[in-house]
Design a protein that fits this description.
By secondary structure, the chain is mostly beta strands. The protein contains no helices and 12 strands. Strands 2, 4, 5, 6, 9, 10, 11 and 12 form an 8-stranded mixed β-sheet that branches. The protein has a 4-stranded antiparallel β-sheet with strand order 1-3-8-7, with no helix packed on it. It starts with a strand and ends with a strand.
Length: 125
C-alpha cells in the first residue's frame, strides 16, 4: 500500500516561514518524483515544486521561486518544503504527491500517480 502523509502546516503571518514534511511508504523513494501541490478554495490544484529523488533535481513554479525550497531525505523516504517569505496568496491545502517515470509536475492539475491527504497552510496579512 502506498501512503503519503503531509504535515507541518499551520498559521503564520505574512513574511514568516513554515516547513512541510511528507513521509512516504510503500514505494522505493529513489524511483519516484515527489512534488508539492497546493489547492486554494475555488482553485484548481497547482504543482508548485517537485524533485526527482533519483538525482535530486528540483523545479519550482514561478509563483514560489526564490521563496520555497524542496529537499529530500531518501534514506527516510521523506521530502520537505521549506517555505519562506510567505504571502497570503500562499494560503492553501498543500498535498504531497508521487509519480513513477517522470521528473514530477508543475502547473495546473499535475497528473501524479499517488496523493497524500494534505496539510493546511494559512498565511495572515
Amino acid at each position: 500500500e502506498v501512503q503519503l502523509q503531509a504535515s507541518g502546516g499551520g498559521l503564520v503571518q505574512a513574511g514568516g516561514s513554515l516547513r512541510l514534511s511528507c513521509s512516504a511508504s510503500g514505494i522505493t523513494f529513489g524511483e519516484y518524483a515527489i512534488g508539492w501541490v497546493r489547492q486554494a478554495p475555488g482553485k484548481e490544484r497547482e504543482g508548485v515544486s517537485c524533485i526527482s529523488s533519483a538525482d535530486g533535481s528540483a523545479r519550482y513554479a514561478d509563483s514560489v521561486k526564490g521563496r520555497f525550497t524542496i529537499s529530500s531525505d531518501n534514506a527516510k523516504n521523506t521530502i520537505y518544503l521549506q517555505m519562506n517569505s510567505l504571502k497570503p496568496e500562499d494560503t492553501a491545502v498543500y498535498f504531497c504527491a508521487a509519480d513513477y517515470g517522470s521528473r514530477g509536475y508543475l502547473g495546473v492539475r499535475p497528473p501524479y500517480d499517488y496523493w497524500g491527504q494534505g496539510t493546511q497552510v494559512t498565511v495572515s496579512s
